[in-house]
Write a structure and sequence with these properties.
The structure holds three protein chains of three kinds. By secondary structure, chain A is mainly alpha-helical. In chain A, 79% of the residues lie in helices and 2% in strands. Chain C is mainly alpha-helical. The mean pLDDT of chain C is 87. Classes of the chains: A mainly alpha, B mainly alpha, C mainly alpha.
Chain lengths: 95, 97, 313
C-alpha cells in the first residue's frame, strides 16, 4: 500500500511537470497565471499521498497551508496583471 | 475487511491519477486559454476529490479525515473563483490588445 | 523508487530555476519563482523538514510572490528601458560561472560532512521536557535560542521602518497602496468575503498547534497576513493609515513583551531570557501570543508598501 501511494504521488508529480510545459509555452498571460493553480492542486495531491504513505500526519497541515496560499498567489497574479493596463489610477473592477 | 479497504483506496487513487493525466493532456492540447482553464480546474479537482476519497479510510482519526475534506472543499472553491478571474483577465487583455 | 522521484523533482526544480533566470519579462520570472517556491515545499517534506515546508509554502509560495508581483507592477513603465540597459554577454557568462562554482562548492561541503553530522539534537531531546512544549523546533526557537527569535522580530520591525522611509514627505502617516475597488457582489469580492474567515481559522490553528506539532507563530502569522491582503486587494476594506496609534502599538507589543520577559529573566533565574523552572510554558505562550499581532501587522504592511495617499479616506 505505501509503495502504491508513492508511485501515485510520483505520477501526479510527473503530470504537474507536463502541465508546466504549457505554462512555459503558452502564449499569453492567462496560461502563465494558471501555474499557481496547477502547482497548487497537484502539490496538494502529492503531499496527501506522501503523507498517507509515510504515516506522517503533519503533512496534511502543509497541504492545508498550500491550498490557502496557492489561492492567494493566483488571485495576486490576476489582480496585479489585470491592474497593469491602468497603472496609477483607481483599479476599477466592475466585478 | 482491510483488503477491501485497501482495494478501494487503490482504485480511487488510480482513478484520481487518471484524471490528473486527463487534465494535463487537456492543458497541453486544447487550443486556447479558456478551454485550458476547463481542463485544469475541472479535471484536476475531480482527480483531487477521488484521491481524497481514496485516502479517507487510510487516515488515523476523524480529525485527519475532516482536514482532508476541508482541503478538498477549499481547493474546489478557490479554483472555481480563480478560474473565473483568470478567464476574465484574459478576456480583458484580448479586448484591450 | 525514491531515487526516481527525488531525481525527477530535482530536475524539475533546476528547469524551473533556469526558466526564472532566462525569462524575458518580470512577470514570467515571478511566475517561475512562485512555482519554484511551491515545489520546494515538497522537497522539504521529503527531507522530513515539515516546519520548514510550512514556512516555505507560506512565505515562498504566497507572500514573496505577492511582494514581487507588486514590485513588478510598479516597475512596469521602466521595464523596457531597464532591459535595454542590461549587461552584456561577458558579464552574464561570468555570473553563470560564479553561480555554478558556488553551487558546486556547497554540494561538496554537504558531501564531505562527517556522518553522523555534528548536531545538538540529543541535548535538545534530553532537556525538552523542561520547556513544556513537544515540538523540538519550537523549543529551540523560543526557549534554547530565544535571543535569535527576539533579534529576528526586531529586524522585521526595522525592515518595515525601512520601507516606510520611502514615503514622500507629504504622505507621511498616510495609507499604503492605492485604494482598490471591486464590486462586493462580483467574483473577486465574493472570493475575498468567503476565504478569509476560513483562512483566519486555519492560521490560528497552525499557530496553536505549533507547540507540539509542526507549525508555529510565523507560519500562522503569514496566513493571517495574506488573508488581510486579500481583503485589501478586493477593496472590501481600506489600508489603515500608518500613523494610527493602535497600529504603532500593535507593531511594538511583541518585541516589548519579549524584551520584558527577558529582563525579568535577569532578575529571577539570573540570565537574560532565562525562564524560571515550571514557568517556561506560560512564558513561551505569552511571547507567542504577543508576537502574533506584531508579525501579522509587519508582514501585511510590508506587502502593502510605503504610504501613497493621505490619511483621510
Amino acid at each position: 500500500m505505501p509503495d502504491f501511494l508513492l508511485w501515485a504521488a510520483a505520477f501526479v508529480l510527473a503530470m504537474v511537470a507536463l502541465g508546466l510545459v504549457r505554462v512555459k509555452l503558452g502564449p499569453g498571460y492567462a496560461d502563465r497565471m494558471m501555474a499557481a493553480q496547477l502547482l497548487g492542486s497537484g502539490s496538494i495531491a502529492v503531499l496527501l499521498l506522501f503523507g498517507a504513505a509515510t504515516g506522517e500526519t503533519a503533512v496534511i497541515d502543509v497541504a492545508l497551508t498550500l491550498a490557502l496560499l496557492a489561492a492567494f498567489a493566483s488571485s495576486a497574479f490576476v489582480h496585479f496583471a489585470a491592474a497593469r493596463e491602468r497603472p496609477a489610477a483607481d483599479a476599477e473592477d466592475p466585478g | 475487511m482491510s483488503v477491501l479497504v485497501d482495494l478501494f483506496t487503490c482504485l480511487s487513487v488510480a482513478a484520481g491519477a487518471f484524471f490528473y493525466l486527463a487534465g494535463s493532456v487537456g492543458l497541453l492540447r486544447f487550443p486556447d486559454a479558456y478551454t485550458r482553464l476547463h481542463a485544469l480546474t475541472k479535471a484536476d479537482n475531480l482527480g483531487l476529490a477521488l484521491v481524497v476519497l481514496g485516502l479517507l479510510p487510510q487516515m488515523g482519526g476523524v480529525l485527519a479525515g475532516l482536514k482532508l475534506v476541508v482541503i478538498w472543499l477549499l481547493v474546489l472553491f478557490s479554483s472555481a473563483a480563480v478560474s473565473q478571474l483568470i478567464a476574465r483577465a484574459a478576456r480583458r487583455r484580448e479586448a484591450g490588445a | 523508487m525514491t531515487i526516481v522521484v527525488n531525481s525527477g523533482v530535482v530536475f524539475l526544480l533546476l528547469a524551473l530555476a533556469l526558466w526564472t533566470v532566462v525569462a524575458r519579462e518580470a512577470f514570467l520570472a515571478i511566475v517561475g519563482f512562485v512555482a519554484y517556491g511551491l515545489l520546494l515545499a515538497l522537497v522539504w517534506v521529503s527531507l522530513s523538514g515539515i516546519d520548514v515546508a510550512l514556512t516555505e509554502a507560506a512565505i515562498g509560495g504566497g507572500l514573496t510572490g505577492a511582494l514581487l508581483i507588486g514590485a513588478a507592477a510598479r516597475l512596469r513603465a521602466t521595464e523596457t528601458e531597464a532591459r535595454a540597459q542590461a549587461c552584456g554577454r561577458p558579464t552574464r557568462v561570468l555570473a553563470l560561472v560564479v553561480s555554478a562554482a558556488v553551487a558546486v562548492a556547497l554540494a561538496l561541503c554537504v558531501l564531505v560532512l562527517p556522518d553522523p553530522a555534528p548536531t545538538l539534537a540529543h541535548e535538545v531531546a534530553a532537556d525538552i521536557d523542561a520547556t513544556g512544549v513537544g515540538n523540538p523546533i519550537t523549543a529551540v526557537l523560543l526557549a534554547f535560542r530565544a535571543v535569535d527569535t527576539l533579534l529576528e522580530a526586531l529586524v522585521l520591525v526595522i525592515a518595515l521602518i525601512g520601507v516606510w522611509s520611502l514615503t514622500p514627505d507629504g504622505f507621511w502617516g498616510g495609507r499604503p497602496g492605492m485604494r482598490h475597488r471591486a464590486n462586493p457582489d462580483g467574483i473577486f469580492g465574493y472570493f475575498a468575503r468567503v476565504l478569509p474567515p476560513i483562512g483566519v481559522i486555519v492560521g490560528i490553528y497552525i499557530f496553536w498547534t505549533g507547540a507540539d506539532h509542526p507549525g508555529g507563530k510565523f507560519q500562522g502569522a503569514t496566513i493571517l497576513a495574506t488573508m488581510w491582503m486579500l481583503v485589501l486587494m478586493a477593496g472590501l476594506a481600506d489600508a489603515p493609515p500608518i500613523g494610527r496609534r493602535w497600529l504603532r502599538i500593535g507593531l511594538v507589543v511583541g518585541p516589548l513583551v519579549f524584551i520584558a520577559i527577558g529582563l525579568a529573566g535577569v532578575l529571577v533565574p539570573g540570565a537574560f531570557l532565562a525562564y524560571p523552572a515550571g514557568f517556561a510554558k506560560p512564558l513561551i505562550i505569552a511571547i507567542e501570543v504577543a508576537l502574533m499581532p506584531t508579525l501579522v501587522l509587519i508582514l501585511g504592511l510590508l506587502l502593502a508598501g510605503a504610504p501613497e495617499r493621505g490619511a483621510r479616506p
